[in-house]
Amino acid sequence: MGGPSRDCNGARPKRYYKHGRWKRVLQRLVRQTVKYLVTGSPGMSMRRGRPDLDGLAMQDLGLYLHVPFCRHPCFYCPYFKETYDEAKARAYARAVREEISFYASRLDGAAITDFYIGGGTPTTMMDSGLPEIVREARDRFNVRCAISSETHPTDVTPDMIERLHRLDVRNVSMGVESFSDSHLNGIGRPYDSQRARQAVALLMDAGFDCVNIDIMFGLPDQTADDVHRDIATALSLGVDQISAYPIFTFPHTGLEDTVRRRGQRLPGMARRREMLRCIEQLCYRAGMRRSGVWSFTRPDVDKYSSVTVPRYVGLGAGAGSLIPGFFYINVFDVDTYIGHMAEKREPPVALSIDFSRREEMIHWLYWRIYETRVDKNAFRTEFDRDFDDVFGSIFALFELLGFAVDNGNVVEMTDRGNYWVHVLQNLFSLDFIGRVWQTCLEETWPQKISLV
What is the pLDDT of residues 394-439, one digit of tens each? Predict the structure, then answer.
């Protein structure tokens, strides 16, 4: 019951694999068709090689620092990370400072207007080089913003909070994931619900500009009532922002196989839609505004978000960068990253892709849709083009389908539209990201990855 039957050896019957193969073929055909209709390009791929970084002409940009260490890496997590090792972390910090030096001499005083530290768990490096990296960035770059950083419930103590303040971290995000002990145990989180509540309370009392907590839904065997309790608990703790997102089933994590071996089930699309509606209703009743596809923020608080500015440079192993005409990523291997920076003193770029002007516009639009709000004037400022001339026909269709509302200078996504962003994200971007990450984890220096 509940899925395709197995034979006596526990194997899926051939018709299951045939169905799965045709499903993947159909998904690929849909992706290629939509990609061609939107961009006019039949394909897209990332290739080995580094773009010319000697003439980075940008007036302002974002800065992303990737800390790839966790004390207890989660089996379902798709992001590049390793188990924390103090000696390696210190060597990593020295390598990142070398990468800062590389970019500082080329950015020529460009303003850093967004500074985000993610991972991994950034606060694992608080005693092994993170403060030195931040100081180096402030000394070498024209930083004109506070810092946003991720942390973990087991790292949150009064002393850690004080040290975050000393680094001028003003916005904090913590992955709580659930307030249910059974679900926390099921996904291997190394704390219980009481510890999660205590950590939230400490952060809320610490005077940060915005405290975001992540809550996952669509967990194995989770029900809508479970989700209701998690969101209600988060709201009762007074958090500034809730980012509620579905657990992602990237193939390289093996999540679906693990769930199947345990005899559990992941909720399907209909059940996840029910869970998302529950989240929306609870957050709206609490007076929160929707600030992203997955995020809900109190009206008197500026939202917490990762780097979503049109241009940014990524520091560290596995970090991505978007500069005029190019997107590129560093190697997904800490030892290779450290050795490359020590020997060549330049970013160890694993893959890059040329972005046409049209593709830069689409990338910009993707993040604005993700934020649920598209500012047409900002588009004109960035690209010197009229938004309606470029994307007007697409958003006319969005309005017809009830996905968006055009208010003149601003287009706002509706809840229905946000749900379909979720659906299409699973079909497109998660497939792209999963393919890139899986290849980069398997090959340090891949030659090429076809995205569509």
Answer: 999 999 999 999 999 999 999 999 998 888 776 666 677 788 888 9
Distance CA 406, CA 397 (A): 11
Q: How far apart are CA 318 and CA 303, in angstroms?
A: 26
Residues 77 and 187: their CA atoms lie apart, in Å, by 10
Measured distance CA(329)–CA(446) in Å, rounded: 11
CA atoms within 13 A on the CB side of 434: 17
Distance of alpha carbon 308 from alpha carbon 310, whole angstroms: 6
Give the residues across from 217 on adjacent strands.
246
- Phi then psi for residue 266, to 5 deg, are -90, 135
Cα gap 19→374, rounded to integer Å: 38
State how far the alpha carbon of 44 is from the alpha carbons of 307, 309, 354, 451, in Å: 23, 23, 9, 6
Q: What are phi and psi of 216, to 5 degrees?
A: -95, 145
Report yes or no on whether pTM surpasses 0.70. yes
